Amino acid sequence: MRTYTLKKQPGLPLYEALYRAIREDILTGTLLPGEKLPSKRALASNLEVGKTTVEAAYAQLLEEGYISSRERSGFFVEAVEPQKKARPVQPVTESVPLPRQGADLTGNGTGQFPFSVWIRLQREVILDYGERLLLPVDSRGAPETRTAIAKNLGDFRGMTVDPENILIGAGTDFLYNLLLQLLGQDKVYGVEDPGYGKIRKIYAAGGVRCLPIPMDESGIRPDSLGGARVLHISPSHHFPTGIVMPLHRRRALIDWARRTDGFIIEDDYDTEFRFRGHPLPPMQTMDPERVIYMNTFSKTLFPSIRISYMVLPAGLMARFREKLGFYGCTVPSFEQYTLARFLDRGYFEKHINRMRKFYRARRNRVIAMLAGCPAAGKFTILEQDAGLHFLLKVETALDDNALTALFAQSGLRVQPLGSFYTSPREDCRGMLVINYSAVDEKALEEGLGKLEI
Fold it and tell me: Please, are residues 324 and 330 in contact by the beta-carbon 8 Å criterion?
């Protein structure tokens, strides 16, 4: 009789351990097809376990087809394809990318987040909601969270928003795809050029035609909208140029939307970090029926939270509930309830104020480093006193590839403004987008000290 050694393992019943041991012998060919297994009583006696343990293991093997039962004869091994011994899997030692050497002036960072407060609120939510956390929430998001977001928008962006018209989703990527289904894939979508390339990729993957709209010093140009019927813009702080769209241009675009029965997607990403004055009210306040307002907590809190939201015009929300309301909310209720308390109790406001001071100080240090380095005479800093990036004009005859390579030789990773356009441009030669939110300041100072242009 084959002998099995059964050891108690936390969370693993004995019958499960026996079932796995026999199944392994069958799959590896140790037990051959047609071979008879010991009787339940004999195996239980041999293993010094209860008969019910063997019965449960045999029952599982029967159900999965590894063995068969013959009346008055016992249990026999079934013919299954032998399993080859798998090579040992090497443990993964790097779950996240290692930091790049030198100073990275292209990526986003986060820090100073009040984890102790967030964890305390999570404990409260678990105690207060209990098993209700296991229940699904409204497809638009938890009412508590939508109400908290509406109040926050009213307090800090001057918006009057009905929580019923807020839709929460796991990241703006998901919301963009919802909008494609809601607004229609037969329309032409106008996007800023230059602009955030991922938006163009998502719309293209959704099967719609994207029209790159050129920009001037006031933002996207109304005379170049062509056949577009949906505009995706960031009027309060454009990425990557930093342009803030003035009121006269906003009015022109609102007039266009009313005249053409079009819609404007207002991406308000990154506007919380403004270091001077107050931002203009969102375009959504100018026409709530023509403007779809979007924002995210990924930049203001931490990227992995994946909570974004949009404020839909009432008519579009009714269409969503009728045609797309079958979608389940993609953000866990646990995180939503925690965020609602974080907003309601003023922690979000305190965090933003603290981060605004932190990033302003970092921005000033980065600018001071640029102004004091050996190549400072070749630099002109173009800034809008907002957001976590600015433009750096470098006086050089080098093309973008050669310029970025030159910076890389000194341990500085930079991205040219030209890379954000849909087609190559000569008029932005030497323009670099400097994103300082995640930069290693010591590495930046060392790199600038070695940079020769």
Answer: no
Question: What is d(CA 6, CA 54) in angstroms, rounded to the nearest whole number?
Answer: 12
Mean pLDDT calculated for residue range 111-137: 92
Structure tokens at 31: 């037990």
CA distances from 176 to 166, 200, 294, 295 (A): 14, 11, 10, 12
Q: What is the CA radius of gyration of the chain?
A: 30
**How many of the other CB atoms lie within 10 Å of CB of 77?**
20
* Burial class for 136, CB neighbours closer than 10 Å (0-12, 13-18, 19+): exposed
Q: How confident is the model at residue 95 (pLDDT cuts 50, 70, 90)?
A: very low
Integer Cα distance of 362 and 438 in angstroms: 10
pLDDT confidence of residue 160: 96
Separation between Cα atoms, residue 403 and residue 95, nearest integer Å: 32
Summarised one tens digit per residue, pLDDT across range 35-50 is 999 999 888 888 888 8
Mind listing the pLDDT tens digit for each residue in 131-182?
999 999 999 999 999 999 999 999 989 999 999 999 999 999 999 999 999 9
Q: What confidence score (pLDDT) does residue 216 get?
A: 94
Handedness of CA 273, 276, 277, 279 (dihedral sign): negative
Residues 6+ apart with CB under 8 A from 354: 112
- Burial status of residue 280 (CB atoms within 10 A of its CB: 0-12, 13-18, 19 or more): middle
Q: Angle of helix 347-372 relative to helix 333-344, nearest 10 degrees?
A: 80
Q: What angle do CA 117, 119, 120 make, to 5 degrees?
A: 65
Q: With beta carbons less than 8 A apart as the criterion, state whether 260 and 229 touch.
A: yes
In whole angstroms, give the CA distance from residue 391 to residue 134. Answer: 47
- Tokens at 215, concatenated: 């920009």
Question: How far is Cα 273 from Cα 352, in angstroms, rounded to an integer?
Answer: 8
User: Structure tokens of 22?
Assistant: 């026999």
Give CA–CA dist 248/5, Å, rounded.
81
pTM check: above 0.85 = no
